[in-house]
Amino acid sequence: MEAPKPEEISHPPMDQLQGFEYCIDSNPSWGEAIALGFQHYILALGTAVMIPSILVPLMGGSDGDKVRVVQTLLFVGGINTLLQTLFGTRLPTVIGGSHAFIVPIMSIIHDSSLQQITDPHLRFLQTIRAIQGAMIVASSVQIILGFSQLWGLFSRFFSPLGMVPVIALVGFGLFDRAFPVVGSCVEIGVPMLILFIAFSQYLKNFQTRQLPILERFALLMTVTVIWAYAHLLTASGAYKVRPYKTQLHCRTDKANLISSAPWIKIPYPLQWGAPTFDAGHAFGMMAAVLVSLIESTGAYKAASRLASATPPPAHVLSRGIGWQGIGILLDGLFGTATGSTVSVENVGLLGSTRVGSRRVIQISAGFMIFFSILGKFGALFASIPFPIFAAIYCVLFGLVASVVPEYFREYTVAAFHGPSHTSAGWFNDFINTIFFSSPTVALLVAVFLDNTLEYKDSARDRGMPWWVKFRTFKGDSRNEEFYTLPFNLNRFFPPS
To answer: What is the pTM of this model?
Structure first.
């Protein structure tokens, strides 16, 4: 008797993620959308304040200079978010400051010609102008790769299996930065972590008038409660005799943002003066632009899933990268002191709230622009202690092993320079920046292995037949709904 054949069980992947109340083209009520947009703005503040707080003092800048850089970063971030949601991928992604640019920027800061300037303010101005020049030149990499469709052509080598480690490390790569900051002020960071997990995960089914208010607004509620608690500790004198480093992380008045911020200030191009250009600085910055490109590619894939949209076609992916290059160009013109990328924490918030509406993100961009102009009010929200943001990141990110980037990071911390330490500074910046990034290393390894190890025989297991129809704009009828440009602009920029 012939043995019965085992039953084949097929689990076809879903083109769109189910269970979202509001996807990319559906919108909550205006009141709810404004509250959700403000929540995304609060989350974007973390990176917008953290990066300038690290870099500006090293450049010789004062508290006033730091506030202006924070305002400029938020202002340009709001503009770039609107450009990306209107003309780029049209996915609900917040564009914010990128940590990938820190390595080449640190190299510029420690340039001997700039270190010789004795006046701190003059050194700050000369340094930020050098950063601007390098960023303006380096932005051409994304502009060319994006608008020429080269990045879209290269994306045909991406399979769902190959993108798994990239998206994972994009979402989880900053996790190691979050827990140490939580530990820097445990009396604020740990309660925030516990409360946010409780609201967003364990109590998410609690509803008021059929609205899952704790799931939807967990971040806003917990930040308000813990911020008030932190202010109470500060006002009561709990940190008067604590070390300076503890006060810096725990106090709500230590950053001097509110006192240094102007009431009204509109950032404008070349506000720091004319940019200066150096070939070595520009080449090192190009590595950061490539890292930003790869990180954003993974973030776009994740955002499309969490917005319950189809995977972006190659044409849309290239279009988004091209507009992100324009965004980095604006960073260089305005002087944000760092480049742009898709804010991974805000992508994570899409999944936490289960709201993938494009309108919500555009409203958050409006808040970024509005509060960057009204300096005092923006500085009030920006005075939220870092451990509160870090606790949120611990929930929205996760921990994934990344051996090579971890080696580069640990080596840099110990030796104050990367493993590549030759006499050619531009080469060091390029190598150290590339291998400092977990998503970049993940993409290089994943794409290489995915397209070399039995790639023909395992195409179905890798998900290639399913993904092939999304490579072109006309490959799926839903792409027109999700990605068509507004104002009938597709006739000038026809999808390829």
So the answer is: 0.83
